[in-house]
Known about the structure:
The model has no long low-confidence stretch (mean pLDDT 79). The chain has helices at 2-33, 36-62, 65-72, 81-105, 112-125, 133-166, 174-181, 189-199, 205-216, 219-228, 236-244, 247-269, 271-300. The longest helix has 34 residues, at 133-166. The protein contains 13 helices and no strands. It has 301 residues and is mainly α.
Amino acid sequence: MEQAVFFKVLPYLIYFFAVIMALTSSLLIYTGLASQTERMQTRLRIKQSLQKNREKLAQSASRSGTEEWMKKANYPLGLNAFKYQLIFYAFILFLLINYLVLPALYGGEIKTWTLIGIIIAFVLLLPSNPYSLFVYVMKRVIDYKEAKKNAEVFMLYDLLINELESMTNSRINTYNILRNIKPFFDVISGSFAILLTSWSSDEGPEVALDKFAKDIGTQEAKSLVSVMKNLDEVNIETALKSLKGMNDMFVRSQIENYRRRRKVTTDLASIPIKTTHFLIILDFLVVIIVMVSYLMDNSNM
Length: 301
């Protein structure tokens, strides 16, 4: 058996070593004929060409729909469109080589269901497919990020009240308060940093707060910003009264936000279970089809 496999693989080994030897001899001939300066220039041209091609691929990926999904999801696991496409096509290539190419080389049988499974995996992970697993997961991740953003807006509201209640002097400095509580935020930390930078620039507090509210994009953030604009001009009691007047709105928002986060977490956690159920049903259908085919073949005989 081992000898039979060896003789089947032998022609491919011969071709492989022949190509390696041809490339090596070509390299040696080129090294002997070309000067060191020419070789260096050639290496630089090849390096520049590879760099340009890589930049083109990265730019093409950055303009794709995959990049838009990744950007909305805040680049989960550090993945962008280019990295995801590399992983995606490498995975599909691995499946093709492992389940189609290698069996063909060793004289094995290529099963139709294996090919169908690879096609299903390709379609399920394809970003351009609106019903793919990729789009489903991205939507859930985006919903989860939005829920966390809303939770941090509520935390901003709560921290503002706590800071005002703990103040001993009667003069409010909103910029200092925001600068002190900035380390407590994660999802909106970028928007927070832009807010503080714009606040201390020529744009001024009102423009900075308007940009912050627009960047967050929720009704709660807009309402909170409308109060924050006037904090420096009123006393602590008035500021606290204005903030606490929005308590009911934020409580309702937090309840809804909690429900959304629970739903997203449940949906993401149920993916392995749903996948298992799908595979079980698919396996059951395959068994039925095989049995029917077998019975029909026997009846024809």
